[in-house]
Amino acid sequence: MLAKKLIPFLKIPDSKELSTTDPEDELLVDMSRNDMLQLCYFFEQAGLGLPKSEMFSLMVSMKNLIRTEPLTSIRFWGKIRGLYKNYYILETELTEEEYARRNEGLEAEELNVANDENLELERISESQEIEGESDTKVPRKLPPIPSPTVEVQLDPPPESSGSGTNKKVYYICNEIGDEWTQLPDVTPQQIRVARQIKKSFTGLLTQEIITYPHFPGLEINYLRAQIARISAGTQISPLGFYTFKDEGFGEEEEEEEEAEGEEAADVVKTSYKENRKYEPPVLRDLIDSSMSFWVHHTMYILPQGRTIWWNPNPTVAIDEAAEEELGEEEGGKQPPGREPETGPPLLTPLSEDASLEAIPPWSVRTSSNILSDYSLAVVRSNLWPGAYCFTNQGKIFQNIYIGHGHKFMSHNFTPLPLPYVEQDYILGPEIMEMTDPTGEQEEQWRIDHLPPPPPEKVEEEGEEEEEEGEED
Region (Disordered) spans which residues (predicted)? Predict the structure, then answer.
């Protein structure tokens, strides 16, 4: 079966066969770093990777994908094991035109969602008005409608394609030789729920995720959320390989850049460039247990589920003068909801990563203690078992993940408890259930509530008796 799937890929492409992409776009894809046989050689030294036959088949399949999709970069991300099938994953970047087209569709969807929400609010307000009119005819006064005590948090919008958690586009297949399936963009809500659950992958993209809290999507969305989390926590590179500055700038441009940098000091840096003057550290520094010579080159995902914080209450924002007055009056306190979420910036050293109950987040070793001049530095993530990175003391390094897609937990997984049932109404005599009275209590209540004898009738009878006595 595998041979039948790979035979079409091994044929020499005919010049008459038309590709679905522009020939110039095919040249944009850098396949020099995707020599899977070379990577297989390094992976074998580090004790990682896939068999040589699978690595070769992956390289052929990747070259076929370039001819059908508008890509500018492609990389083998790794493999996630499932119960029935496995996932082979590719990490790619699309062209600017494709990103623009996807973002236009996203804006149209957001506009439709906003219109639907406005129509729903109008419908609710109209129904409340009708209910109010009908309630005026009811003589009995009902208790007020209870207000919910749980604060409803607005779902932050997803980040646009080509930025943040959706900066990369991922393709997956269950077996090498199958057609590649593009995963959808991830949403902040999916990432937040994925952090609270632990579900094994089945290998079926349409599998329903039955968990608590409810996951908004199928396994294809859960897979995309886990890939985003793993990438944000395990994508690392040697110190100095990437930089924020372009080394080709002149002195005048550097001065202008420094002036702009002072003005925009609070702006979060979201992009970087490859350092053309990169000098790799020596092996002694790369295997240092302090992990100061390795950095993260993927943005940190905030608790909100985004890489850039979204203000849920934009109306709370005030100007600087009012903020100073508020600080003087209230002792420098800011209005509630103004505190933005922050995280470590790009290219942060691994030495600043937090440990998990005395377990170091990273472990580093060499592939050979005998031939130190030719050995590799291999870094392993202890928080995400299956994530590795190697470098050959040169300009070649690679990240790979081969695991089950779950984060390490020092204790057994415990799902979140169900929320407490809220009381519909405040306890009071209007809604409290009373016990039925006994027969003696009812008879006593009847006697106590008998009407008193009319005094007027007694006086009239007395007057009649007196009149009869006088006549006699």
Answer: 127-166, 323-348, 436-472
